[in-house]
Amino acid sequence: MNLGRYALGRLGFGLFQVLAVTLLVFGLTEALPGDAAVAAAGDNPSRETIEQLRDQMGLDRPAAVRYLDWLWGLMHGDLGRSLVAPREVSDVLADSVGPSLVLAGFSLALLVPLALAIGVAAAVRHGRLLDRLLTSITLALYSVPEFAVGLVLVAVFAIKLGWLPATALGVSDELIGQPAVLVLPVLVVVARPVCSLGRLVRAGVIDALAAEYVQHVRRLGLSRPRVLLLHALPSAVTPAVQQLARTVDWLLGGVIVVEAVFVIPGLGTALVDAVSARDLPVIQALAVLFACTTIVVNAVADVVAFRLTPRTEVVR
Length: 316
What we know:
Strand content: under 5%
Shape: flat
Helix content: over 70%
Radius of gyration: 24 Å
Mean pLDDT: 77
Order of helices and strands: HHHHHHHHHHHHHH
Number of helices: 14
Structural class: mainly alpha
């Protein structure tokens, strides 16, 4: 199978997944306990007020009709209106996506080269002191959850030393203009993924350097750095590409714990607020956004992995 046919097949499967996700998201939000009309009515509402709000929100219509209307709106870019605030859902997402993208962007910019450097450095010194040291550090760091790493970093660098701000409180969405606010969140976000990615790169490089095709290239007289970068590394990073896709999905999903620790007003915080207020349109839009991000990122990762995987063409 060539790359074009594989990409088209993966695209078709991705579209089917998106449709299944919309049905699942709508069903799960319908199953949430409580009533959105009651939540929007405030304290001690009358039955007439609740019924009026249910009629305005369209909650008195059959679930199948509401799903089809919602799906039609999604297909035309209409995410609906928030049930809590008099705003379009697209405006809520637009206000929240900036901080999450900034956090994800800076984290990826640090994560990818750092993971490659750790993995390659450990692989080329396989079994030596540096390899054992890097392996021990990454295993120890990976076992610590994000919130614990965040609390330790805040306690040391923000409270005790006073070098960095403890939270992004009061910064709003202008995170990129105040890089000091991003240092601790980025370190927390990168801490665990860099360990898993670095170990995958290490294992892949070790296997690639021992492969027959790499040994043949080395016998042709190519320098060790060139063999490593041009022949061993592309196939070695194939497993890491799929792990990186899961990491990107995790980053774009808002990194809810990290946003909560550092008071970052991103997508994760918006989702927590929407669930607390039972704001169904916002919950549904964010859930579909996160799911579609997962589908797209993993589809791209599968295509890249397919392209990087070495294969032998059999001529008959």
